[in-house]
Amino acid sequence: MEEIGVLLMRPLSNYLQQELSKRFTLFKYWEIQYESLKLHADSIRAVGGSGGLGADAALIDMLPRLEIVSSHSSGLDKIDLVKCKERGIRVTYTPDVVTDDVADMAILLIIATLRRICEADRFVRNGMWKQKDFSLTTKSSHFMNQCVTSLKDYILLKHHFKPLQPFVASVQNNVSFLKH
């Protein structure tokens, strides 16, 4: 049976590496010497990367039988897509894996800002509570409803990382330190 090599650009979980090693010969980029990698180049048919390490043109050129580059992240920045297209190499990645988590974090940060959570934490940790009271914040439920609606629309439309003008304007109008 022909050896099928998979070049991992970064460590994966032990479980994933064990499962892959049952089916393929794994080459670990972080452990293998460049000269040794060149010796096995003909057997490597897949590259598994991440947002930080992918497959540049030099690596793709070194692997004559490469068929697929897979990124274990939502970004393709580190993969030479033009070179992959020229060579007919499939490219896969994991888009939207953290979309819900990013939205959750955005809501958390908005609430923390509006309710001055970090400021209150510093107030308590620095012992300032012994000298004076911490002023209460205002209610923000109406603003939060607007934010949640804007974020849901944003995620549903999948316009990742593009500015949301109504959302930004709403934040600027409701958070004092952002007002111009």
Automatic annotation (TrEMBL):
Chain segments annotated as transmembrane: none
GO molecular function: glyoxylate reductase (NADPH) activity; hydroxypyruvate reductase [NAD(P)H] activity; NAD binding
Database matches in InterPro entries: D-isomer_2-hydroxyacid_DH, D-isomer_2_OHA_DH_cat_dom
Pfam families: 2-Hacid_dh
Keywords: Oxidoreductase
The keyword Thylakoid is annotated on this UniProt entry: no
A single cellular component GO annotation: cytosol
Keyword Oxidoreductase: yes
SUPFAM superfamilies linked: Formate/glycerate dehydrogenase catalytic domain-like
Domain spans labelled D-isomer specific 2-hydroxyacid dehydrogenase catalytic: 6-148
Protein name per its UniProtKB record: D-isomer specific 2-hydroxyacid dehydrogenase catalytic domain-containing protein
